[in-house]
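Figure S7 source data.
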Amino acid sequence: MAYDANNIFARILRGEVPAHRVHEDEQTVAFMDVMPQADGHTLVLPKAPVENLFELDDEMAAAVMHTVRRVAAAVKTAFDADGITLMQFNGPAAGQTVFHFHMHILPRHADRPLRGHGRTMADQALLAEHARRIRAALDAGG
Ligand code: AMP
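Tokens for the predicted adenosine monophosphate complex:
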């Protein structure tokens, strides 16, 4: 399948659709998932137009994981999480719904199950507050 330049993440990357960003560098961006499966659910994506894992080159993969490690540490701190789950889907059969490569960062607490995937829109003010907490943790060094 050819990369769809109008997928929602491509539009966020172009600034056409708003997102609660927590991190941006030359190669990657991280922002809040609008239908979080846990409070603090954050997405990390490469800026390059790649649909899935099989189209990432080694340099992009390294850049994405570099950002994932930093942002995951900040999410863990910001949400006082017991652990972090990473998720990543390739192809509709695997559950992928947005066809621009991305990693999910999910803060986990021992007593809290995850909410459903892409089910319930979060309040925008709450997402803004969660993004602020993660940025503060990043600024403090993770
Ligand atoms: P996936 O199934 O891995 O492709 O997941 C796509 C994710 O993107 C889901 O968790 C959605 O909640 C999330 N999502 C969809 N639209 C937006 C948006 N406009 N901003 C942030 N996250 C989004």
